[in-house]
Specification:
mainly alpha, three-stranded antiparallel β-sheet, 6 helices, 3 strands, 8% strand, globular, MarR/SlyA-like, DNA-binding transcription factor activity, DNA binding
Length: 152
């Protein structure tokens, strides 16, 4: 990957970050399209929030933001949009009346059975012809790169 640099410049097509971004954008566009085909207007970022709530419902917005790598303002807008769509609701915390937790609505819970197969099909297509060992190395490498950047 260090071959992205020449003596006096950069070869963009050899840059890892360039390809990570291209893959992210292509996957994002495809996911958005596939969800829309199912009649669901949902961004991939909102999808990540739903996945976190399917893992553990009734979470604080700060927790959702941290677990999806979104700042406070962005997460607030995302939860607002999910609430308007009828997929989540904010309820007071039983432990702290000043705090509100984000809960899935019945519709939000039901979407799991609709959207997880769509995501599985997309990932299956995306990873076609790639050896599982290569995928494990790729994930581990990206996690290491992320850790390097977080530690800067």
């Amino acid at each position: 990957m260090r071959d992205q640099f020449t003596s006096d410049g950069i070869i963009l097509d050899n840059a890892l970050a360039f390809w990570v971004h291209r893959v992210y954008q292509a996957q994002r566009n495809e996911m958005y399209r596939a969800f829309r085909e199912k009649g669901v207007e949902l961004t991939p970022e909102q999808w990540a929030v739903l996945v976190r709530l399917w893992e553990s419902d009734g979470r604080a917005q700060n927790d959702l933001g941290a677990s999806t790598f979104r700042d406070k303002a962005t997460m607030s807008r995302m939860v607002d949009a999910l609430e308007r769509a009828g997929l989540v609701e904010r309820r007071p915390s039983e432990d702290d009346a000043r705090s509100r937790l984000v809960w899935l609505t019945r519709r939000g819970r039901e979407l799991r059975s609709v959207l997880v197969p769509v995501a599985r099909k997309l990932v299956t297509h995306m990873l076609e012809g790639i050896d599982e060992k290569d995928l494990v190395v790729t994930r581990r490498t990206l996690q290491h790169i992320f850790a390097n950047l977080e530690g800067s």
